[in-house]
């Protein structure tokens, strides 16, 4: 993983927030399909395009997914045979490549897309609304894998320890959200 500068981290966080606001995402868990729909990113499941040896080959080359631009169309292909949380992580990662307008496959672009995906799936200012007790609860609320939830919890705690005033883009994001939490048969709507 390449090391990013603080300015670049800040830029990626702003871009991720902009993605959420421009795509009118206002409920939790954040829906990557809605982002793709709003942005007109075409989604292709491996199972709908490949079969047999071709499918095996593509999974060997790209176990989770990949994105590209073809005839001015932005396309994300993804492995739909993996677990649901992993698909979500993959889509957010690929959305990151497209939103950050990456043009090459390199360590830096991978790091940036990873960071974008990790941020957008559970942004600390939104986690702060729910104040989950632990990463297990966080992963349920934000529909992430346990591993992703663990990292998001650490990121949130770090954010909380250094944040006195929320930044402009963080406030913009929070204002837009009208939270819907649906799990364990409970629906809680947070009006802000
Ligand atoms: Zn990538």
- The strand count comes to 5
Class inferred from helices and paired strands? alpha+beta
* Overall 3D form: globular
Give the domain tally.
1
Q: What's the end-to-end separation, in Å?
A: 38 Å
Biggest sheet strand order reads 1-3-2
Q: Tell me which ligands are bound.
A: zinc ion
Helical stretch count?
Answer: 10
Residue stretches low in confidence (pLDDT < 50, at least 5 long) are 181-192
Largest pleated sheet: 3 strands, mixed
Name the beta content range: 5-15%
Radius of gyration, in angstroms, nearest whole number: 17 Å
Q: What is the element string, with H for helices and E for strands? A: HHEHHEEHHHHHHEE
Which bin fits the share of residues in helices? 55-70%
Average pLDDT works out at 90
Describe the structure.
The protein has 192 residues and is α+β, with helices and mostly antiparallel strands. The chain has one domain (6-178). The chain is 57% helix and 14% strand. The chain contains 10 helices and 5 strands; from the N terminus they run H-H-E-H-H-E-E-H-H-H-H-H-H-E-E. It has helices spanning 6-22, 32-39, 46-49, 52-61, 84-99, 107-121, 124-130, 135-141, 146-162, 168-176, and strands spanning 42-45, 65-70, 73-78, 179-183, 186-190. A hairpin with a 2-residue loop joins strand 4 and strand 5 (186-190). Helix 1 packs parallel to helix 10 and helix 5 (84-99) packs across helix 6. The longest helix has 17 residues, at 6-22. Residues 181-192 have low confidence and may be disordered. The chain binds zinc ion. The site of zinc ion has 4 residues, from helix 5 and helix 6.
């Amino acid at each position: 993983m390449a090391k990013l500068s603080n300015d670049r981290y800040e830029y990626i966080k702003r871009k991720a927030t902009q993605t959420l606001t421009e795509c009118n995402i206002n409920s939790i868990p954040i829906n990557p399909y809605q982002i793709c729909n709003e942005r007109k990113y075409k989604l292709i499941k491996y199972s709908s395009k490949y079969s047999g040896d071709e499918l095996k080959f593509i999974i060997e080359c790209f176990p989770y997914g990949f994105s590209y631009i073809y005839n001015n169309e932005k396309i994300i292909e993804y492995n739909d045979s993996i677990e649901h949380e992993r698909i979500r992580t993959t889509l957010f990662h690929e959305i990151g490549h497209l939103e950050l307008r990456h043009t090459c496959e390199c360590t830096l672009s991978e790091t940036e897309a990873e960071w974008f995906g990790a941020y957008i799936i559970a942004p600390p200012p939104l986690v702060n609304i729910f104040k989950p007790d632990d990463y297990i609860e966080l992963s349920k609320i934000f529909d992430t894998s346990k591993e992703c939830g663990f990292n998001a919890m650490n990121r949130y705690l770090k954010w909380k320890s250094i944040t006195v005033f929320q930044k402009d883009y963080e406030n913009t994001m929070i204002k837009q959200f009208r939270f819907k939490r649906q799990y364990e048969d409970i629906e809680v709507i947070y009006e802000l």
